[in-house]
Amino acid sequence: MGLKKDDWFFVEGMLRKTIPKYELVNRIITFGFSSKTRRKLVELAGIRPGMTVLDAGCGPGILSEMIAERMQEGRLFLLDPLDEMLWSAFRNLMKFDLEIEFVKGLMEEIPLPSNMFDLVVASYSIRDCMDRDRAIAEMKRVLKRGGRLMLLDITRPENGFDAIVSIHMKYIVPLLSSIAYRKKENPWKALYRTYVNMWTPSEMVKAVRRHLSVEFYRTFALGAFTLVSARK
Question: Across the strands, what pairs with 80?
């Protein structure tokens, strides 16, 4: 389950255009929940100095910055299929005195060795995969035994609020994002394509449980955001 190939190319093309105002617009359209939930992930991830960490689908490195601030020392890898995102992440992370590597690749085919990472994180990236199940299997592969996966993304609420969130994604998000983006072609319109194909919270937990031992999960904003923690 995931994006169709044509949808994937469309969404990736739109993601390139989000880079100049990526985090500003995301904070606006989620009423701050994109930042709040990333902070919660970092708070619960058990990050400590000396770890080896992978940010899968890193985008411009927003989550990696939060992780780097806590690591102090160790190895941090950022994976993304887009050169433009990796360059943006490089500019955002060059201030940190850590061993940081930037890797171009898909989450479904992570070009890194097995049993390498203490922690793998993926925030707002699994929904953009063409094969989410394979992506989770790959994140499991690169984890060390006992390593942790922290998966965070938008989900479709299953408590009666799906219609409300769907209306927000389809109509309100383009309106709010256009206020800050101020260009004719608004890339945040692509968000609805990924949302309608995304899991519910229980489906997301079940998908992770097929590969790893789920420790806990948290939902936010009526179930519109879900964070899952699991161990290999």
Answer: 104
Contact 53, 117 (CB under 8 A): yes
Angle at 156 between CA 226 and CA 225, to 5 degrees: 25
- Rounded Cα distance, 189 and 177, in Å: 9
Q: What is the pLDDT of residue 172?
A: 83
CB neighbour burial string for 196-208, b if at least 16 within 10 angstroms, e if fewer = eebbbbeebbebb
Q: 3-state SS string over 119-177?
A: EEEEECCHHHCCCHHHHHHHHHHHEEEEEEEEEEEECCCCCCCHHHHHHHHHHHHHHHH
- Beta-bridged to residue 150, according to DSSP, are 121, 229
117-123 and 74-80 beta bridge pairing: unpaired
At 32-51, the pLDDT tens digits run 888 999 999 999 999 999 99
213-220 β-sheet, strand order: 99-104, 74-80, 51-56, 117-123, 143-154, 225-231, 213-220
Per-residue pLDDT tens digits for 107-142: 999 999 999 999 999 999 999 899 999 999 999 999
SS3 44: helix
